[in-house]
Specification:
By secondary structure, the chain is an alpha+beta fold. It has one domain: Beta Polymerase, domain 2 (2-Layer Sandwich). It is built from 4 helices and 5 strands; from the N terminus they run αββαβββαα. The chain has a 5-stranded mixed sheet with strand order 1-2-5-4-3, sandwiched between helices. The termini are far apart.
Length: 128
């Protein structure tokens, strides 16, 4: 029983890594800027990785999101998106990889990388 659970976890991690590689390649191929990968494994249950990237304009943000979804679909992965209408900030949920694509000024305002890195590196407080 423990061996099959370990194999399942190993398989899930391999899938997460494959999705991450597709995400990074798609963003790179389509000229995303300032791509940053945040490793969330073992830190939260919401995802294994968070990827934050910038597009140069609303049109570029929308295009990056569209191409990424197409690339994931070609490889057999399902994803969902939010924010495509305005395209200031598009969120793509691809299994255990969450992708945020921002216009630069919106990214700077929300500063997700700083917030998540602070949460990940924070030491838990001792209860008195």
């Amino acid at each position: 029983m423990a061996r099959s659970a370990a194999k399942k976890i190993e398989t899930e991690l391999a899938v997460d890594d494959k999705i991450l590689e597709i995400v990074k390649k798609s963003l790179d191929d389509n000229k995303a800027e300032d791509v940053e990968v945040i490793d969330l494994r073992g830190k939260t249950s919401i995802a294994s990785y968070m990827v934050v990237a910038s597009g140069t304009s609303q049109r570029h943000v929308a295009s990056l999101a569209e191409h990424l979804q197409e690339d994931l679909k070609k490889q057999g992965f399902v994803s969902s998106t939010e924010g495509e209408e305005k395209a200031d900030w598009v969120l793509i949920d691809a299994f255990d990889v969450i992708v945020h694509i921002f216009k630069p000024e919106v990214r700077e305002f929300y500063n997700l990388e700083k917030m998540w890195k602070a949460l990940i590196t924070a030491k838990p407080e001792k209860v008195k």
